[in-house]
Amino acid sequence: MTTIKDVLNATNPLLFLNENENFPYSYGGSCYPVKWEDQLYIVSAFHCFESLLIKPENTLYPIPHTNKDFFGFTNIFRATCTAANDQKHSDQVLLQVCKSSVSKNQFDAVPALDLSNDNFVCSLTDSSVNQVFLRGYLNQNEFHEIDYESCVIRSQAYFTYGLISVRKSVSDYCINVKVQSPTPNGLSPTGMSGSAVYVTRNNNQLSLAGTVIEYNSLTSEYLIIDSSVIVNFLRQIHTT
User: Fold this and answer.
1) Which residues contact 206 (CB under 8 A, 6 or more apart)?
2) Are 42 and 97 in contact (CB under 8 A)?
3) Which residues lie across from 178 on neighbouring strands?
4) For the stretch 126-140, what's the b/e string if a residue is b when 16 or more beta carbons lie within 10 angstroms of its beta carbon?
5) Mind listing the pLDDT tens digit for each residue in 183-208?
6) Where are the domains of the chain?
């Protein structure tokens, strides 16, 4: 059974290759896996790549049970909704994992929720939500860095929970959520973009609620893309 600890631990730093020979690796946010039946996707915020001029396919998401191997990708998608009146909801990229490049055990070892199952999807505005969980990688964290002098790549996640408030955003298919400790010790939330927002409901069901794309320092709220966007997009591409 997939637990909240399992799926939270699967949220990784968005590490990728760049075109600088002297500094070939970069951090740019967070990312997490989801499944749709027999397919696996790595999800993040598109602006994490766009702001650094990095191609999404350069993402380095580690293959389980290996030390230095990373998944390859067959397709790159932007999850969008034609019914939206603005584009904020489209700040989401899905990288489809190449199944043929890994063993079945490695593929199955990724703790990702299967979004084709309605039980694993929920909106933050659902009245049954009783807890929210976020895990991401803050850029200002001194233990989250690429140290070229020592030839070491370090990462340390920041975990927060404790639902305070939820309200719909002025942007279509987006929601504002406030949690008890959005950032530690006044650190910038930069790096949380691309993080998954998981919830538990009154029946203890674990579900995906959305993807973090922004933080409002005035209201101390994270702006997330509602999970319905990624679910409807995946349903569409898997039924055509």
Assistant:
1) 2, 3, 4, 7, 113, 120, 198, 199, 200
2) yes
3) 165
4) eeebeebbbbbbbbb
5) 887 889 999 999 999 999 988 889 99
6) 4-237
DSSP string spanning 105-134? HHHHTS--EETTSGGGB--TT-TTEEEEEE
Instruction: Give residue-wise pLDDT tens across range 125-179.
Output: 999 999 999 999 999 888 899 988 888 899 999 999 999 999 999 999 999 999 9
CA angle centred on 181, ends 175 and 187, rounded to 5°:
100
Q: Provide the phi-psi class of 204: left if phi over 0, else alpha when psi is between -120 and 50, else beta.
A: left
Nearest to 197 by CA among 143, 146, 150, 134: 134
Do 120 and 208 touch, CB atoms closer than 8 A?
yes
| Helix extents (H) in 161-238 | 227-237
Burial class (CB in 10 A: 0-12, 13-18, 19+), 151: exposed
Q: CATH 1.10.10.10: does it fit domain 4-237? A: no
**Could you give the count of Cα atoms lying within 13 Å of 238 in the half-sphere of its Cβ?**
16
> What would the two tokens of residue 188 be?
């910038």
| Nearest-angstrom CA–CA distance, 60 and 54 | 12
- H or E element that contains 36: strand 25-36
Instruction: Tally the residues of the chain.
Output: 240
Look at residue 21 in the predicted model and tell me its pLDDT: 82
- For residues 146 and 27, the answer to whether their CB atoms sit within 8 Å is yes
pLDDT at position 31 over 90: yes
Range from 18-27, 32-41, 58-67, 180-189 that averages highest in pLDDT: 32-41
